[in-house]
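Supplementary Text 2. Reproducibility record for the structural model of the 317-residue chain.

All settings were left at their defaults, and a single model was retained for analysis rather than an ensemble. We include the record here because the model underlies the residue-level annotations in Supplementary Table 4.
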Amino acid sequence: MEGIYLGFDFIDLFASIGGFHLAANRYGGRCVFASEIDSYAMKAYESNFGMAPAGDITKILTEDIPAHDVLFAGFPCQPFSIIGKMEGFEDTQGTLFFEIARILEAKKPAFFILENVKMLAGHDKGRTLATILSACQDIGYKSTWSVLNALDFGLPQKRERTIIVGFLDHNVEFFFPAPIGPGNLGDVLFDDADVPKKYFASEQILAKRAAQHTSEHNPGIWHENKSKHISSYPYSCALRAGASHNYLLVNGIRRLTPREMLRLQGFPDSFKIVCSDNQTRNQAGNAVPVDVIAAVLGNALNASGDLFETIAQTGLA
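Retained model, structure tokens:
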């Protein structure tokens, strides 16, 4: 279905390095506004999309945000400590979700797609997510959610995320996409001979890993968890910003390169790497998996097909 839908405008909140943007590009979407607070992510975003994201969304007036058809937001998973009174929209004030809510209330896009960590679904025994859905309902949206795994959508990375989709038109019948299976890890990885020596683990780490684990997978990613237990899989465990440099090792001997990390998130090789290895590593860990968002967006556009066909024909977007 790629490239069918033309003419819809979107905004990209908490944009990071543009995973939502890349997914929307597959369907002819046009970004009219982006916001990101991290200066390195802003640099990567501008270098790849030709537009500089606005800064801190909490300091941007609602009236300064353009009209749009679709709102995307991979909003940060900061503690939702004040949520829980079940008072809908008003109960989200003080959290970054409130910034999304105030824009939805004012601009009324046709639909939105939000992404957060898997734990959001069960946070505070489900009350946090229930409050977010209640806030969306107060604003006028019919919302649904699911936990989706990048491993099920063509990416060789186990990355589970809570996805929330909401429609202004309550008659829209939306279904989350069906899994298609994992991608091939071998398609993501470089040959070891082509990887600079700086990415290879030290002899001390190699000896320690070899003493603890023997892998059945080649290629495989060896994963060291917080308890120092070593396991390996024919895919990567979730990339994490700020994690140990050695918690994921290709075949137990080397770290992932920045390009391999971006590939695991569905970023094409045409995506320019303009920041340091460390910054790009953090960016990949914070990014949304492009193929997951693209699958959800495709279903959302199909569900809203009549609306977006009208937009494309009339140029109203």
